[in-house]
Design a protein that fits this description.
Layout lengths: L1 E14 L3 E8 L3 E7 L4 H5 L7 E7 L7 E8 L4 H4 L2 H17 L9 H14 L7 H12 L6 H8 L3 H8 L3 H5 L5 H19 L8 H7 L2
Parallel strand pairs: 3-5
Antiparallel strand pairs: 1-2, 1-4, 2-3, 4-5
Length: 217
């Protein structure tokens, strides 16, 4: 049986000389890893970049726990992201957060669609997106079912409580214009990650946050 589906790339693990395990998020399978054979350097540098949205055929019915996928194509070019160093780095961070926060098989209702919407939004926004990942983390906590109130967040963001209050009462466009220094933005990102860790009951260890610290300093 073959199932055609959309997939968001979260992470890749090289397997042998020309195969990879592709860690993805989809509507049908949630957070799921797939086996991809015959992968060349071109696929690694184009198709399998963080947060790429793909279409692929899932081959079901084999005995392996890892399902095979084939006929992989990109649903969107995402030129606005791939041609921008800052946006590219942000997708690296966001994909790692999703990869580490979601357990294998997890698939909250609406999560895939919400992620696709945000990927396309980041791709299209022209200016003032430095706060994008902060808005993403706040909304992710809602889509995962934590639905934080200001009081829930207070123990984690006490020094930046007023800023978080502004984020939660603002539209997307307004929240992108909240003036923050690179230092404060990085501190808030760390605080929101700690909030997620507390509710997920596990350490996320998001290594790519270091890249954002350097770029948005």
């Amino acid at each position: 049986m073959i199932v055609n589906t959309g997939l968001i790339v979260l992470h890749t693990t090289k397997y042998g000389e020309n195969s990879v395990i592709l860690h993805t998020l989809s509507k049908e399978y949630g957070r799921r890893s797939f086996f991809v054979r015959g992968v060349g350097k071109k696929s690694m540098t184009t198709l399998f970049q963080p947060l790429n949205v793909l279409e692929a055929d899932i081959v079901q019915g084999n005995k392996s726990k890892l399902l095979n996928i084939k006929n992989i194509t990109a649903l969107y070019p995402l030129a606005g992201i791939r041609n921008d160093l800052y946006k590219n780095s942000m997708t690296l961070f966001l994909s790692e957060v999703l990869y580490r926060a979601l357990r294998e098989g997890a698939g909250e209702d609406g999560l895939y669609e919400w992620c696709v919407k945000n990927i396309l939004l980041l791709d299209s926004v022209q200016n003032d997106f430095s706060n994008f990942h902060l808005r993403f983390l706040l909304e992710l906590s809602v889509i995962l079912g934590f639905s934080p109130s200001l009081e829930d967040l207070r123990p984690f963001v006490s020094d930046h409580f007023n800023i978080i209050s502004d984020f939660m009462s603002s539209s997307f466009a307004e929240s992108m214009l909240i003036p923050l220094s690179g230092e404060v933005r990085n501190e808030i990102a760390e605080e929101l990650l700690r909030y997620l860790e507390f509710h997920l009951d596990s350490s996320l260890n998001v290594n790519s946050l270091k890249v954002l610290r350097e770029l948005f300093a």
